[in-house]
Fold this sequence. Notes:
This protein is an alpha/beta fold. The protein has two domains: 8-88 and 174-283, TIM Barrel (Alpha-Beta Barrel), CATH 3.20.20; 97-160, no CATH class. It is 38% helix and 16% strand. The chain has helices at 23-32, 89-116, 123-129, 136-145, 152-160, 175-184, 203-218, 237-246, 274-283; strands at residues 8-12, 37-43, 54-56, 61-72, 75-82, 188-191, 223-227, 250-253. Strands 1, 2, 3, 4, 5, 6, 7 and 8 form an eight-stranded mixed sheet that branches. A hairpin with a 4-residue loop joins strand 3 and strand 4 (61-72). One of its GO terms (molecular function) is 5'-3' DNA exonuclease activity. InterPro entries: PHP_dom (IPR004013), PHP_domain (IPR052018), Pol/His_phosphatase_N (IPR003141), Pol/histidinol_Pase-like (IPR016195).
Amino acid sequence: MLNEHGFADLHVHTTASDGMDTLSERCVHAKEANLPVFAVTDHDCLHPAFSEPIMKTDHCAIISGAEIRAGVAGHEVEILGLFLNPTSTELRDVLERVQQHRIDRNQAIVRALRTHAGLETTYETLINRVDGVLTRPHLAEQLKREDIVESHDAAFQQYLKSGVKTHEPLQLVECEEVISAIHDAGGVASLAHPGYFQPPESDRTVDSLASLIQRLQTAGLDAIEVMYEYGESGFSAPRAAALASDIGLLQTGGSDCHGSKNSITTIGDVRVSRPEFQRLYQRADTAISPY
């Protein structure tokens, strides 16, 4: 994994959205992995445990963050906000709008699944069962639980991916508003896993991605998620690093771990170096030391 000489895992999920582990469990896992710093970046929300951009335990520092869906040039991307002050009214307002868009979409998908896939569970039952934010992986799990599909992959292929009858597009808040809200909260805005923007099979795709990143930079983007486990997708950390270097953006990175038992990577498997973390920290507007 991509953790040689690493210092901080800046992309971790908890039960506040679609992760399988609580924040307390994440702290235990960080200690076991000898991980000095990690960021909680739950989908479209701030973890309620934070009252400041950085929270410290006896063995690690935890960064307040969020992974926020946004629109840019008609495309959907995810922006990582790091070092977020949870008292920011602008950020709270944007997150509430994004969350409402997600609620509207989930309700539409559940209605379609009940009509076209034979799903028996109601939307109300699903949201009462989930501790954090209801997401498509939760819907995939329910389809599997009701024996409508055999696996999570089958659920997405048949019912949840773009282009199928039961898919519902997500209304997006534009990237300018998302990045502005992150900055209002004193945070750093980074494009999450750029290699997943399009299948990276050709140079033209890279050109298209570079153009997208330039538009995001014009909107105020600070960084690109470079260190990331792309597996056999065809994209790589060096390609992301080249994109960041070409236009002078900082670099973030992380495991994107959703659970200690069901994730391709676990917390601490992917890390950024201490010098790169320091550059990100210096860009943020916070006086709280993570060290």
